[in-house]
Amino acid sequence: MDSGISITAEKLIDYTAKRASMIASKENLERIVGISSKQMAERAVDRVAFWLAETQNSLLYCKLCNRGPFTKKGLYLHLTRVHRQEIKTMLEEEIKRELKAVM
Asked: Which of 14, 47, 52, 86 has the most CB atoms less than 10 A away?
């Protein structure tokens, strides 16, 4: 079961980074995780994205390392290159929390 969570978290990293960067994602979440897991993934992604970025005076900053300011694309690239593993770990924890709530 943990390997399935890890795989799902890996698939959601880019989507989560885009959400945190306020980039309108063209990817459909349903296509990434399937229709049955869409709502659970949506909640997990929203909670993780909240902890990744903040806006100060309409400028984006990374909450994980306090770097910035970034453009939307710059923050997305920073998150996916520098903090990829941290985002994956955060997603795994949120997915586990969601699964416990269902069971």
From this structure: 52
